[in-house]
Write a structure and sequence with these properties.
Layout: H1 3-6, E1 11-16, E2 23-26, E3 29-32, H2 42-52, E4 56-61, H3 62-65, H4 69-79, E5 83-87, H5 93-107, E6 110-114, H6 116-128, E7 134-136, H7 143-148, E8 161-165, E9 168-170, E10 206-209, E11 212-213, E12 230-231, H8 234-246, E13 251-254, H9 263-275, E14 281-286, H10 293-301, E15 304-312, H11 316-321, H12 328-341, E16 344-351, H13 358-370, E17 375-380, H14 388-395, H15 422-437, H16 440-448, H17 453-467
Parallel strand pairs: 1-4, 1-5, 5-6, 6-7, 10-13, 13-14, 14-15, 15-16, 16-17
Antiparallel strand pairs: 2-3, 7-8, 8-9, 11-12
Length: 477
Amino acid sequence: MSKAGIERRKRVLLLNPPGEQLYLRDQYCSSVSKACYYWPPIDLILLSGFLAQRYELRVIDAIIHGIAPEQCAEEIASWRPDAVIFLTGITSWPADLAFARTLKERTGALLIGVGGVLLYEGTPILEANDHLDAILLDFTTGDVVDFIEGAGDGRETLPNLSYRRGDNVVAGKRQPKGKVFEVPLPRHELFDLSRYRLPHGRRRPLTSVMMSDGCPYTCSFCVASPLAYRYRPLENMMVEFEHVASIGVKEMFFKDFTFGVRKELAIEMCDEIVGRKLDLTWICACRADSVNRKLLEAMKRAGCHTIQFGVETADAELLKQYRKNIGQDQTHETFRLCREVGIRTLGHFILGLPGETPETILQTVKYAKALKCDYASFNVVIPQVGTDLRRMTIEKGYYRPEGETFDSGRSYPVVETERLSRDALWDYRRRAIRSFYLDPKYILKRAAGVRTWTELQNLIQNGFALLRGDNPAILEG
């Protein structure tokens, strides 16, 4: 046998690093789970399709398995990977960076990071941390394979990566290849899907899927605004959906920033799910102006039971200022249509945007009740890395980045304005949550709406979270 024939395949590890809390890291966002819910990271799922074709591939989700840092490092070192692709985010960045250094010392493997803080501030991070080898700027491509194979050593510049070349750092740029993208079949079976759950989920096992990447809208507080919108062709999605159904998955979480931008494609997808008799239910996120009755009815037929909507605030001037140009009439109509069709709604609300007042916060809470949301997520404003909001809050002195970590659901506010102190904003958030969820009419409505054992478990956990003073288990935006 030739030497080439006995050489082992390269080993690549997809890693969700360990952490002291339930850090949700995916899709350039990060936060802390509020009540033990957790979904599979879409970044790692899509990358699994590209990598499994060529390498011996392994997935370690240290968060969902509760693996301590030392145990995790020992397990990785014993497997001897050639490359580790790891998730990170502003919520857990310092600890993730330290763990990556430990891995480099123990394994010598290529370390490739994925996350919002790396996407927008990657070059100085690479320059300051010589144990990091590269940053992947687009997880919907297989460009990372070229780097693992050493293509970045020459004069050519690799697309969609920033990376180390000798003593220098090559600053990359996200380079979408057209408006349509395809991914090889993601290897969902490499993830322990039985461990994941959604707060509004109806069934398990659960996995994450994606119809589109990026967003065509320009909301100044959203990490997706700078990312060009692209979508997958119908058959590429259906091959994946048939596969997840065949391995026993019952529920899908669409991780599109905005589902339904291409309404006809979404309707075709729904019709295919029905036509192929796939036993799948699902949740997605839409804008109030990205759906209509025809699409909602198709989604309902195909198994959609809950939609998240970014409502943000009741104040029209704030919506205009931050480029979320959807009027109250449109939002009320969309929520009404969802009730008629039989799809539950979750409203996301941002409290404390510069320009917010105590009066507008109270109006927003009243608005959430008037919309008759099935669930409401009240989160404090966060100046996410890469957003126009972050630049504005820094320029005006409302936020001073000093290396702190934060997330919108549990962390203490980091933005303070002339009209709202951080203490006051935190207090208004707590009052908003209790006002919405402790309304007797709401409690009776939720109890009457339980349809499955999974839903009952979620309802009980949400109740305990509220009694502890946490935000109930609502999906992160």
